[in-house]
Write a structure and sequence with these properties.
190 residues; alpha+beta; three-stranded antiparallel sheet; 8 helices; 3 strands; 13% strand; elongated; COMMD5; COMM; COMM domain-containing protein 5
């Protein structure tokens, strides 16, 4: 969700959300920002029943809080406060957010969850499959790459992709790893 494009009435709903439920929404937003976040629809349904707040409103408010968490992670404390005030959040709401002063703990928890998620891969092997053909075969048979992925729980997956697709995959993975490294470095420097 883009906070800049959020309707004013949604910002007002978030600011006026019952005080006794804000901590639970903040915790749910932090959990939803983690890579291993599972479906939380049962928790939201239970929360809705216990608090007599419509599920749709909880989803909307939770979406705003998730965007607030992302904004917090992307900016320093002063910019974070300033940007929230510019968007239209009340000063009282911004002051009561539990993020400022807890940056190191929040970033550490999020990074720990990112690091443990990658430990499931035991091995990755690949081989190039080139089918040789003679002049009698009219169609061109493209080369393919066979990926053999073994996880720590001993499950194996074999994926066959064309060489061109493999290079796109390789490039995308390299780009993601580079961005994760940059994000981790920038969070440790703050």
């Amino acid at each position: 969700m883009n906070l800049q494009a959020a309707p004013k009435n949604l910002i007002n709903t978030v600011c006026q959300f019952p005080e006794e439920h804000k901590n639970k929404i903040v915790k749910m937003a932090l959990v939803a920002s983690q890579p291993n976040a599972h479906d939380k629809s049962r928790i939201i349904e239970s929360f809705s029943n216990d608090s007599n707040i419509p599920k749709q409103q909880i989803y909307e408010v939770l979406g705003v809080y998730i965007a607030i968490v992302h904004l917090f992670l992307e900016s320093n404390d002063n910019d974070f406060n300033t940007r929230l005030l510019e968007i239209g959040f009340t000063p009282e709401f911004v002051e009561k957010l539990p993020f400022i002063g807890n940056r190191d703990e929040i970033v550490k928890n999020l990074l720990n969850n990112f690091n443990t998620d990658y430990a499931k891969l035991a091995s990755l092997k690949w081989k190039l499959d080139i089918s040789l053909s003679n002049s009698l075969v009219v169609r061109k048979i493209p080369a393919s790459v066979i990926l053999i992925i073994t996880l720590k729980n001993s499950s194996k997956y074999t994926i066959e992709v064309e060489a061109k697709t493999f290079h796109k995959l390789r490039f995308s993975v390299a780009l993601i790893l580079k961005e994760l490294h940059m994000l981790q470095s920038s969070m440790l420097n703050k």
